[in-house]
Design a protein that fits this description.
Helices cover about 45% and strands about 15% of the residues. The protein is an alpha/beta fold.
Length: about 100
Amino acid sequence: MSVAIDYQRTILADKLRNDAFARALKKVVRAGKSVLDIGSGSGYLSFLAREYGAKSCTLIEQEHEFYTLSKEIAKENNITGCSFLCASSFDVQKNIQAN
């Protein structure tokens, strides 16, 4: 797991990458719409989407440590409107209604 943690640290510290994702999310996230974050890791991108007006975010992460971490980050920062699934996206079946 330490390789995955190191990778998360690396991408979270990458300002150029994160600024690019933030600009992209600002362009596509619309108020009242839902976001599905596959391989959510720490939850950073979903939390940005909520900040930009997404009605809800579903975070799917198969690594239990990151699933737990993202839930803790959301709780500690009063980020609401997120649901968390510890699973592979290949194993998740969900009815998604277009908004």
